[in-house]
Amino acid sequence: MIAQLQKSSALGLVLAVGSLQAVSAEVAVEFWHSFGGASGEALTQIIENFEAENPDIAIDAQEIGNYNDIVAKLQAAIPAQRAPDAVIMEVTRYGLFADRGVLLDLTSYLDADPLKDELFDFAREVGVFDGKNYIVPFNSSTPVLYYNKAIFEKAGISEAPELVTYDDLLAVAQQVTDALGDEGISGIAAPGQFARWGLIMDNDSDLIDSVSGEILIDAPNTIEAYEFMASLVHEHQVASPDGVTKENNGRDAFLAGKVGMMINSTGNYAQAQASLGDDLAVVPMPCNKTCAVPIGGAGIGILASAEQEVQDAAYKFISFAASAESNAIWFDKTGYMPINKGTTSQAVAADALRSKPGIDVAIKQLDFARGRPRPPVVTWMRATEYDMWQAMALGQREVEETLTEFADRTRLEADRLTN
């Protein structure tokens, strides 16, 4: 597949002894990603800028779907020998592919690249699995709390409310629902998986310990967090079950002015701002028992199956995409956090910080942001968690019973994957 894409037998880019050396040739890189809308437009601009500077390299960018879709399609493509050359991989799910030798170890590339010292520590760390670099960060995020000021005011909340604890969230959600429920407006969107992880962390727990690998799904504080989240839907009815059975429904309802607040990725900032304009408010995540937020987003990895010259060309693009200039475009157009120390000194990023209220909230949370685990079992755990959450949120199963069973199954799966 790769050979068919090459437009010349000569080499457009060679990486020798850890340094990038360009020679004249042409090569195409098939790149799978997950970005549409404003994010897709920003990525297209970055690719066009790269190709203008590197006319011997063509980036064949293909939008595959969301992170889950990419994992599923990559797993299907590998045995069929139809895998891409480079791929966006969510920061907790690439470990499975690194562990199986599917992703190329990028350590020698990054060690020889000035980019290594330009990246923030958190951004550099998200690409490390088993002491080696397998992805280079592209879009980094934390969850933040968005709310609709117009809905709050209509519900009688005229001043910015305190939204620090679980009780604060519930009280505001109940006030909105009580005041506006007859108009089809609910208080809060049912939390998606990224938001759920954040609410677990700020209840001083985790799903899997990022250092030791201990399964914490059935830890008391994790159970307490799920009990609160599930109660928003089936007990207090301040969140619609529509956002449980299909997580994007909650986000879409918020953007349509039918939900008072939502917890979601900072990567949703651009869409939320475009939808709500001056009615949008962005505040930090709650700190129920502690202040802690997960670092999310994705990085770009290279397939070990790609030809050497394609791997070299792909890395050159990856490095360009993480540069201060490219990252400033990405930050401005999407709201994803800066990953490069030089990003905010770029004019476009500096202007965004001045003119777009709330775009800096995720940056301010970095003091208590934490990386998440990425052992092979995380891919299975995250895929399975959706069904567990749905059963709990819809009141079909008790939370403690569900999480105890889920934790046991996760431990067995972790053992299976490591033996």
Automatic annotation (TrEMBL):
<dbReference type="InterPro" id="IPR050490">
    <property type="entry name" value="Bact_solute-bd_prot1"/>
</dbReference>
<dbReference type="InterPro" id="IPR006059">
    <property type="entry name" value="SBP"/>
</dbReference>
<keyword id="KW-0614">Plasmid</keyword>
<dbReference type="GO" id="GO:0042597">
    <property type="term" value="C:periplasmic space"/>
</dbReference>
<dbReference type="GO" id="GO:0055085">
    <property type="term" value="P:transmembrane transport"/>
</dbReference>
<keyword id="KW-0732">Signal</keyword>
<comment type="similarity">
    <text>Belongs to the bacterial solute-binding protein 1 family.</text>
</comment>
<dbReference type="InterPro" id="IPR006061">
    <property type="entry name" value="SBP_1_CS"/>
</dbReference>
<keyword id="KW-0813">Transport</keyword>
<feature type="signal peptide">
    <location>
        <begin position="1"/>
        <end position="24"/>
    </location>
</feature>
<dbReference type="Pfam" id="PF13416">
    <property type="entry name" value="SBP_bac_8"/>
</dbReference>
<protein>
    <submittedName>
        <fullName>ABC transporter substrate-binding protein</fullName>
    </submittedName>
</protein>
